[in-house]
Structure formats: C-alpha cells, structure tokens
Amino acid sequence: MKNKAAEISVLAWESDGILLERYAYKSGSVEPLPRHSHEEYQFGLSFNCQGEYHYRGAYHSIPTGSLSVIHSGEVHAPSDRNYLPAPAHFEMMHINPKWLHTIAAEMAEKPANLPFFPTAFLTDSKLNHLFLALQAVVNQKTSELEQDIALLDFLSYLIRRYASNSPSVCSLKPPHAAVMLACDYLHAHYASEISLDTLAAIAGLSRFHFCRIFRKEIGVSSSAYQTQLRIAQAKKLLVQGFSITKVATATGFYDQSHFGWHFKRQIGVTPGAYVSKTAITS
Q1: Quick one: which of 21, 57, 99, 143 could link to 92 by a disulfide (CB 3.0–4.6 Å)?
Q2: 1-170 CATH
Q3: CA pair distance 145, 251, nearest whole angstrom
Q4: Segment 4-30 mean pLDDT
Q5: What DSSP line would sit under 110-133, residue for residue?
C-alpha cells in the first residue's frame, strides 16, 4: 500500500530582506527537494526531527536542537528521505547578505568582509534562544525597535562567536552622555514607532555599539526601556478610567492582545485584573 503523503502547514513572515518560516509536518511520504542555491543565508532549527543536508560535497546530519547554517550562494539539498515516520516541526530564516555585511562592518567600525561560517550546524542554547526570540517578535507584531534589536542581537552573536572571519570588537567606551539623549527621546516619543537607526543616530553611534553601550549604562535594551515607559503610562491611564482598548492605542501597542501580553509580563496581572484590583483597593 502506498504511503499517504505527509500533511504540511507553513506560516511565513517577510520584512526587508528577511523571511521567517514555521513548518509543521505530519508523518507520511515526502518529496525530496532538488539541489539549489540562493542569495540569502539560510538558518534552520528543528525541534523534534534530525535534519540532513547535502552541502559542500558531503552529507551532514543536523542534530535536533542545533541550528543549521547554509552560506549565501552555496549549492545544497535537504534530506533525500521520502518518508517521515513521526511529525516534524522546525523554523527557518532566510536573510539577505546585506544584513550580515552591515552588522559585521558596524562591529569592526570599518568595512568588513561577508561573514563566513565553516560548519553546517551550530549547537548553542543561547544562539537558539536569540533565533527563537527573533521569530517571536516578528510573529507577535511587536514594536519596530523590538524587532530591530532582536535581529541585531541574533546576528551579532552569531558573527562574533562563529564566523571564521569575525571582526575584532573594540572595548566598551566609558559611559556615553549621548545615551542620555536617546533616553530623553524615548521619554518624549514612547508611544511612537522608533527605529534602532533613529536612536543610534541620536547617540552618534553605530547600531551595534549603541546597543552595547545602552545596555551597559541603563541595564536593559532600548526596546525594553521603551516598553517600560509604555507600561508605566498605561497604568496611569487605566487608573484614570480609560478603556483597555484606548490605553493600548494611546501607549503605542499594536493591539489589545499585544498590550495585554506585555502588561502581564511586566506587572504580573492582565490589564483587566489590574483595573479591578485598583478599584477594590480604592
């Protein structure tokens, strides 16, 4: 009896040269994909199925929980197996080389070569965490600043730790007064969409070095700082009797769900529970 074809579902998000994908396979027969290449770097993380690539003239088994790495422009092919005995879930990212090139140059503070990764996979729990954090902020439609920083955090860690031609990074400068200018800007525009480019320009630094110095001085990322400012203002508005929907909009959150997720994460209760507890107390 012929094996039933595996059911496949895909969720995808794309923005400015970055394509994120989430795949879910049910068990069954699958069609192997042909050899191919693409301009983008490709990264993949499997949660419950060992991966396999034909890459650089050899077959590479990718252990579950390891991040696969396919370099820009290199011919490769996924596994040639034609049957999955169990469900498989994995997440992928295809990213234009311009992002890695730009961040490598920011790290070096001068023109840099395109990062080169000599191995087919990397086993690093922190790298996985940064990769999944990037997937999450894009999926949840969080702020522009949060997405910018998640991308920079993932790529700068990846390049610094695993590129064979990783640029040397200068030591952190003493506390930088320019960071305070960025803080002032965030206070004045906390509800607006603010890019990392904007804050770095205000501070007169590259995005990479701005993020390093901001965290060093303030203790959290600039996106976390913006969220803290938004939640602090949201608490005041809720106590004043504004509806949760209006508060979410007024403080710059994408929607009520996005607001509720961040509020509970910061305060420990949902906005609705916060309002009812406040009313009882008063």
Answers
A1: 21
A2: 2.60.120.10
A3: 15
A4: 90
A5: S--PPP---SSEE--HHHHHHHHH
| Furthest CA-CA distance within the chain | 72
Among the listed residues 215, 44, 219, 196, the one whose alpha carbon sits nearest the alpha carbon of residue 132? 44
Highest mean pLDDT, choosing among 64-73, 77-86, 138-147: 64-73
Question: Look-up: residue for tokens 């023109």?
Answer: 111
Report the C-alpha gap between 51 and 66 in whole angstroms.
Answer: 9
CATH topology of domain 225-281: Arc Repressor Mutant, subunit A (1.10.10)
From residue 109, give the alpha-carbon distance in Å to each of 105, 169, 207: 6, 8, 11
Terminal CA-CA length for the chain: 71
User: For residues 84 and 49, what is the distance between their CA atoms, to the nearest angstrom?
Assistant: 9
Residues of the chain with CATH 2.60.120.10: 1-170
